[in-house]
Amino acid sequence: MGMSTGSGGATPNINVTPLIDVLLVLLIIFMCITPLKPSRFEAKVPAEPKDQQDVQVKPNPLTLVVAINKETKGITLNNENFGDVSDTEKLNNKLSEIFRERENNGVFREGTNEVEKTIFIKSPKSVRYGDVVRVIDAAKSAGASPIGLQIDDLTD
Amino acid sequence: MAMQLGGSDEFNSEINVTPMVDVMLVLLIIFMIVTPLLQQGVSVNLPREMISPDEDADIAKDTSVIVAIPDNNNFYIGKEQYPLDALGDVIKRRMEGKTPDKRIVYIKSGVDVDYGRVVSAIETIRKQDIDKIGLVADRKKGVAAPKQ
Fold first, then answer.
1. Looking at CB atoms within 10 Å, which of A110, A136, A139, B107 has the fewest?
2. Distance separating alpha carbons of residues B132 and B106, to the nearest angstrom
3. Could you give the CA distance from residue B67 to residue A129 in angstroms, rounded to a whole number?
4. For residue B110, is it within any domain?
């Protein structure tokens, strides 16, 4: 009689530990996914060109233009080669170096006391957006700001 | 002896987990329901693992204008699809009354979209007198926020 009550009390217990394990893991997964904070790169675009054809623009010697080559996926900075879209480290290092130098020498944007760190990105229209963003990322992490996107006169 | 083993001793050592499981299940269900609701607009294969994008809480706001380009042929604002030449009017309408520093249009473009499509969207945007574009990208986890 004593034995039978004992075993009778133990049998209806279900082992819920694995269930709780699975639930906890699922819960943690959902909690991680939910609060992903959105982030963005801020880019500037030039205003729409007006109909004044004869405006003479003085070229700025400090301008840095990063261009992407359509065929080779190579990156050029002011027509010098710096790696390609799959390896943006070279570009990043070079830009960091240029900005550091400018900071030390006090190269300022005209009329302000900010160091000139403007960068223009120029890419043919058929390049993948993902590749362009990688280049922007490399420039941004080197400290470039503002980043301008060239919109007019892009090649296919 | 037999009474001791099967009796009160064994029952004392077990924790009643049923309420905990109940709470877990409810939480789980809440999260499962809330997660898809939080996502606005269409799903886009955003650039991931970026090192330096700035966090911007405005992207999630209802009032901000986000142009989504999931593939080469479609432009969406919110959940509505628009042809390229209609984008401008919609953006203009939604930008009305915003202060100059809030005049920014966010672009959510898939990584496999041609840059030319993004450029054509930007071209439409800047015709509305907007010169700031936010390129939405996912930041790599565990990287410290870049200083502004």
1. A110
2. 9
3. 14
4. yes
Q: Is the distance from CB of B133 to CB of B122 less than 8 angstroms? A: yes
Residues B26 and B65 reside in one and the same domain: no
The pTM for the full model equals 0.74
Q: What is the pLDDT of residues B8-28, one digit of tens each?
A: 555 567 777 788 888 888 888
In this complex, do B115 and A6 lie within 8 Å of one another by their Cβ atoms? no
Domain with residue B70: its CATH number is: 3.30.420.270
Q: Does B48 reside within a domain?
A: no
Cα A120 from chain centroid (whole Å): 15
Residue B97 inside a domain? The answer is yes
The ipTM (two decimal places) reads 0.72
Residues B62, B130: one domain? yes
Smallest Cβ–Cβ distance between B135 and the set A5, A124, A133 belongs to A133
Q: Which residue range(s) make up the domain with B118?
A: 57-135
DSSP character for B9?
A: H
Listed by number, the residues of chain B in 45-84 with a beta carbon closer than 8 Å to a beta carbon of chain A are 47, 50-57, 59-60, 69
Q: What residue has token string 């170096």?
A: A97
Number of structural domains found in chain B: 2
Helix axes B115-126, B84-95, angle to 10 degrees: 50
Q: Long-range pairs for A93-98 at CB < 8 Å and ≥24 separation?
A: A93/A142, A95/A64, A95/A119, A95/A138, A95/A139, A95/A142, A95/A143, A95/A144, A96/A142, A96/A143, A98/A64
